[in-house]
Amino acid sequence: MGTGVVDCPDQNRFELDIGGELALAYYKLDGDRVVLTHTEVPQALSGQGIGSRLAKGVFEQIRASGRKAVPRCSFMAGWVSRHPEYDDIVVG
């Protein structure tokens, strides 16, 4: 079962479409590292676990790509600190 998170490399972001509203995780590439810089969840979707669903999909995609994640965004850093199953792909 997929997470619904899509990588849009031309826009340097991951997207999760929820009924036409987009939750976004912006990144920049640094060699084999995906530096997560900013996360946005529309106010209308706040408090529904959408950010966590986005984060899980982002880290799953980074793992599948063979890259490492560098969480510079406070939301992503906080989320991954509570999910040690991703420790193998997190640097920094």
From TrEMBL:
One Pfam family recorded for the sequence: Acetyltransf_CG
UniProt xrefs under Gene3D superfamilies: 3.40.630.30
N-acetyltransferase domain location: 6-91
InterPro entries to which the protein is assigned, alphabetical: Acyl_CoA_acyltransferase, Gcn5-rel_NAT, GNAT_YJDJ
Listed name of the protein: N-acetyltransferase domain-containing protein
Species annotation: Bosea lupini
Taxonomic path: Bacteria, Pseudomonadati, Pseudomonadota, Alphaproteobacteria, Hyphomicrobiales
